[in-house]
Amino acid sequence: MRSRVTASRVSLARHCLAPWTSHIPWAKTASTQATVGTAFHKWPEIVIAAGGHAPLNPSAYVEQHPDITEDLRPQVLRLILAWEIHWRACRSLVGWSAEVAYAYDPQTGEARELGAGLQRDYSGAKAGEMTMTMDARNMSDGALIIDWKTGKQANADRAKDHGQGKTLALAIARAHGLDAVAFEIVHVATTGITVDRALYDAFELDDHADELRDIDCRVRAGQQDPNPGTHCHTLWCPIVASCPAAAPNPWDIRRDTLEILRTSGPLSVRHIASTISIREEQLSPVLADLVANHEVGIEKGIVRRVRS
């Protein structure tokens, strides 16, 4: 059995516990998107640690970062500049801390702060504690947690029921004796910023404590069968590459569906599913998304492209 579920994986754990209870190996390779996200996240940490005034400008930071290859520099720089515009316009620079780590015991409900700037070093956590790091925290008026997201995560939880957000909020509430905690998902894109905010009250935090206790008990119980679904890919399951039960990648289904329709013209749902070698129920959510985006239309079971 592996280590306990961390806050960043709670949304996945809600669907499947096989990553923590099976012997399937975790993938160790980092994607380009992960590299971009990690490089971006370091910039707000530098700015907040310096009291709002970084010791170098964004361009110099991108040029000097050892993990940012030349082809990724424009993307990372645009993300940082979008964040800078939003942060300077919408935030007071008072009361912020970056990269603050906490530990939470799902069995006792106790939590404690481990420190800031630990670079995901959780060696100070005790056995059985869940670990987590908040991108940014402000305690000047209650508690506000911010989680910056740079990747496009289809079907991700909204802030109101965000697995990671609720776990972060629960930890800070228990550690500091708070009844309510605000949480914001700040989606940072090269085109700008969108914010999804939620306020978790005492009842919601208590319910989430029960949920985490149940997850922890099931992990402690041992082997849990894989539960395949779209979460295998949309929630970045670490065993998806090796798991024999993993569901097909919805982005691959989308690509193949559009290509089949481009080359063959209108086809039945059954024909498309058979051609891609998947079940119709696996194709249905992808088709629904394509219809919502006005890329295909469906009439009497026949799918046709709406635009080229």
- Spans of at least 5 consecutive residues whose pLDDT stays below 50 are none
The radius of gyration computed from the alpha-carbon positions, rounded to a whole number of angstroms, is: 21 Å
CATH architecture of the largest domain: Alpha-Beta Complex
Report the total helices: 11
Q: Please tally the β strands and state the result.
A: 9
Give an overview of the whole structure.
The structure is a single chain. With 308 residues, the chain is an alpha+beta fold. Helix 10 (269-276) packs across helix 11 (280-292). The strands form two sheets. A six-stranded mixed beta sheet has the order 2-1-3-4-5-6. A three-stranded antiparallel beta sheet has the order 7-9-8. A hairpin with a 6-residue loop joins strand 1 (96-104) and strand 2. It contains eleven helices and nine strands. It folds into two domains: 7-221, Lambda Exonuclease, Chain A (Alpha-Beta Complex); 250-305, Winged helix-like DNA-binding domain superfamily/Winged helix DNA-binding domain (Arc Repressor Mutant, subunit A), CATH 1.10.10.10. 41% of the residues lie in helices and 19% in strands.
Describe the structure in brief.
With 308 residues, the chain is of the alpha+beta class. It contains 11 helices and 9 strands.
